[in-house]
Amino acid sequence: MVGRILHIEQEQIDRRATRKRVEDVLETVRMYRLMGALRRESGAILEMENPTEHKTETEDLMVKLNSECEHALSILEVDEQEIIRKRYLQKDKQFDFMLFHELNMSERTYRRVKAKAIAKLAYMLRLEVSQ
After folding, report:
1. If 0-12 CB within 10 Å is exposed, 13-18 middle and 19+ buried, where does residue 84 land?
2. Domain total of the chain
3. Dihedral pair phi/psi, residue 98, rounded to 5°
């Protein structure tokens, strides 16, 4: 079923632009995860200085984006999750050529699984770019 949905959708989707958009969102989530704790701590400091300050809309958006991304990732297959997490979401991102060796996959299988994971994320997060 998912295969049919993705096939129908991909006929009308600009794959390169969609992949770029998904990668941008994953990079945003990665940066938020790395710096979010620091922002929350500095927010507590600001609240002590000025109690009327509240979380910004950007902070709310980042929390929501992180949550949606995590939920979408949890739906992916295990090997897809592992590729996305290690390639895009870790503090020290790994390169593709290192990952397919680490995951004991051929380069072709790795690229196929990664492309499928990105297509699924694009669909679940509504990040598709039409042609």
Report:
1. buried
2. 1
3. -80, -35
- The one-letter amino acid at 93: K
Which residue do the tokens 């996305």 mark? 84
Angle at 78 between CA 16 and CA 86, to 5 degrees: 60
Does residue 130 belong to any structural domain of this protein? no
Collect all residues with Cβ–Cβ distance below 8 Å to 104 and sequence separation of at least 6.
none
The structure's pTM equals: 0.78
Tokens in use for 51? 């109690």
Q: Is residue 8 part of a domain?
A: yes
Taking only the tens of pLDDT, the chain with its 131 residues reads 556 655 555 568 889 999 999 999 999 999 998 887 676 666 655 555 555 455 577 788 888 999 999 999 999 999 999 999 999 999 888 899 999 999 999 999 999 999 999 999 999 999 999 88
Dist. CA 1–CA 56, nearest whole Å: 40
The residue segments making up the domain with residue 91 are: 2-124
